Amino acid sequence: MPPWTTTDPLWEVVVAERARLLADLEHLTPDQWAAPSMCGRWSVEDVVAHLTAAASTGRWAWVRSIVGARFDPDVHNDRRLAEHRGPTPARTLDAFRQAVPSRVAATGDVWAWLGEVVVHGADVREPLGITTVPAPAAVEVVAAGYARRDFAVRSRTVARGLTLVADDGGFRTGDGPLVRGATLDLVLAMAGRPAAVGRLTGDGVPELAARVTPAVGAGDPSGGT
């Protein structure tokens, strides 16, 4: 089990993963900012603005926003994204830079906020060919949380009845047909990223693939999708 057992140290990991992503974003070209991400219809810049929004929206602000959106998470996400997307990518990046140390969250489920930056970081990096990966222990925290609970994504539902085994670490969960692969790919699959499913092996992969339904905001506890 990764060595974080209290809320405060886990927030340090969230901040560290945001900082890791920030370093990858510092020198993107305009074309890269406009490139499609792995998160539905969102561009790379949209995903970054969304991460800023998530790091800036506390519990009551989230309640007001989701009620104002008539409990439609797509409307909620789009409004908050528009609020935090700058007039230029440089401004969007600057807003994210300022949000990196934030410990603001709509809930106390810090593992889920770590999941947001892990999943959305991959949403940005993979299409751009950026090879940076999150800290392995951080990914294991997210994998365990996703297997334990449906929270923002249908991760537990996706994994139910399957045995998920990481071949690069200690994560293992479930029973049933085997799905094996990198811990990050297992996380991304549980978060609804079809590209990751294609990198997994085992008798359970066809069933897993049938369950994966990608959605905008997947992996995001602030949006409820």
Model description:
It is a single chain. With 225 residues, the protein is mainly alpha-helical. The chain has 12 helices and 3 strands, in the order αααααααααβββααα. The chain has helices at residues 7-25, 30-34, 44-54, 59-68, 73-84, 89-99, 110-128, 136-148, 155-159, 183-190, 194-197, 205-211; strands at residues 163-166, 172-173, 178-181. A 3-stranded mixed β-sheet has the order 2-1-3. Strand 1 and strand 2 form a beta hairpin. Helix 1 runs parallel beside helix 7 (110-128), helix 3 crosses helix 5 (73-84) and helix 7 crosses helix 8 (136-148).
Summarize this entry quickly.
This protein has twelve helices and three strands. The protein is mainly α. It has a three-stranded mixed sheet.
